[in-house]
Design brief:
Number of domains: 1
CATH class: Alpha Beta
Family: Belongs to the gluconeogenesis factor family.
CATH topology: Rossmann fold
Largest sheet: 7 strands, parallel
Helix content: 25-40%
Order of helices and strands: EHEHHHHHEEEHEHEHHEEHEEHEEEH
Organism: Ligilactobacillus equi DPC 6820
Structural class: alpha/beta
Number of helices: 13
Keywords: Cytoplasm
Subcellular location: Cytoplasm
Strand content: 15-25%
CATH superfamily: CofD-like domains
Function: Required for morphogenesis under gluconeogenic growth conditions.
Number of strands: 14
Radius of gyration: 19 Å
Distance between the termini: 29 Å
CATH architecture: 3-Layer(aba) Sandwich
Length: 330
């Protein structure tokens, strides 16, 4: 059963990739009323294979979000997350949860949205998990050299400077989010974007016209959690202010209210650059340029070093989010 408690802070988290569940797990622990709006433009890995074969919304990000907000015992969540190894040739690389989501989407002729709501109830999700659109979207990019490319994984591997991204549907209609997504954004106390890939995890959601409009019109505080490291093929040598400038430019106005920036240095030679080959340098700080865009800047030690990788400390980030949400409400 999905529980709704109106006295809790209403927080909408928009994004995709591995950064989204980090924030959601800690918000879940804090009993916030969470709505996750999840990208449907992924075309890599198991999600991409399933999308190509049975033409459903890529399930991987949705699967991870469902688990992050689930109240099921850990053993059941581990089953849902289990990924077959390479010796299982037919199922190799697929997570059980991806297959379940794909099956439910195929059973429901109205698209992925209703299927995810049914699964959220089965998984005892505390909150809401909303696909950003009810059908799979294709991400497009225009590069600084004048060329264009389609496909999230191809764009991120092109090693070109991205100037603009947008999304399309397979049937050529204008992408639209369900009304539930728009209502959640408009009724929220706080909108959180990130951490996550700027062009391929966050912007695909905002490029859905009614989602972008709602984020600009909402009275909620709009918060961007800036990435700690720059990303190959997307944000090479970007400062924190350049991340925000890209977001503002895509929506045509300065809509970010607050930016969370990690200021703790990443130790030299800590990062395993073979394992985490998409990360390049630590994001540079430009607080003056952030404030020039109308942003309040919150800088602190949000760094978590683990397994020779660089991550956001979800607990520290959410402590700050809850503090800001309390200020907004009271």
């Amino acid at each position: 059963m999905i529980r709704r408690k109106s006295h809790r802070a209403k927080i909408v988290v928009i994004g995709g990739g591995t950064g989204l569940p980090v924030v959601l797990r800690e918000l879940h622990k804090q009993k916030a009323e969470v709505t996750a709006v999840v990208t449907v433009a992924d075309d890599g890995g198991s999600s991409g294979v399933i999308r190509d074969y049975i033409n459903v919304v890529p399930p991987g990000d949705i699967r991870n979000v469902l688990v992050a907000l689930s109240d099921l015992p850990e053993k059941f969540k581990k089953i849902f997350q289990y990924r077959f190894d390479s010796t299982d040739q037919f199922f190799s690389g697929h997570a059980i949860g991806n297959l379940i989501i794909a099956a439910l989407a195929e059973m429901d002729q109205d698209g992925i949205f209703n299927a995810v709501q049914e699964l959220a109830e089965m998984m005892q999700v505390d909150g809401h998990v909303y696909p950003a659109a009810n059908q799979a979207l294709t991400l497009h990019a225009h590069f600084s050299d004048g060329t264009e490319m389609a496909g999230e994984s191809e764009i991120s591997q092109a090693n070109k400077t991205i100037e603009k991204v947008w999304v399309t549907t397979e049937d050529g209609t204008k992408p639209r989010a369900r009304q539930e997504v728009i209502d959640a954004i408009m009724e929220a106390d706080q909108i959180v974007m990130g951490p996550g890939s700027l062009f391929t995890s966050i912007l695909p959601n905002l490029m859905i016209e009614n989602v972008g409009q709602a984020v600009c019109q909402t009275k909620a505080e709009v918060i961007y959690i800036c990435n700690i490291m720059t990303q190959k093929g997307e944000t090479e040598r970007f400062s924190d202010a350049q991340h925000v400038e890209v977001l503002n430019r895509h929506l045509g106005q300065n809509f970010i209210d607050t930016v969370l920036v990690n200021t703790q240095p990443v130790p030299n030679d800590y990062l395993d650059r073979q394992k985490y080959d998409e990360y390049l340098y630590q994001v540079k700080y430009d607080f003056k340029a952030l404030r020039a865009q109308g942003c309040k800047v919150i800088s602190d030690d949000f760094l978590l070093l683990r397994d020779q990788g660089v991550f956001h400390d979800g607990q520290k980030v959410v402590t700050e989010l809850m503090r800001l949400a309390g200020q907004k409400r009271f």
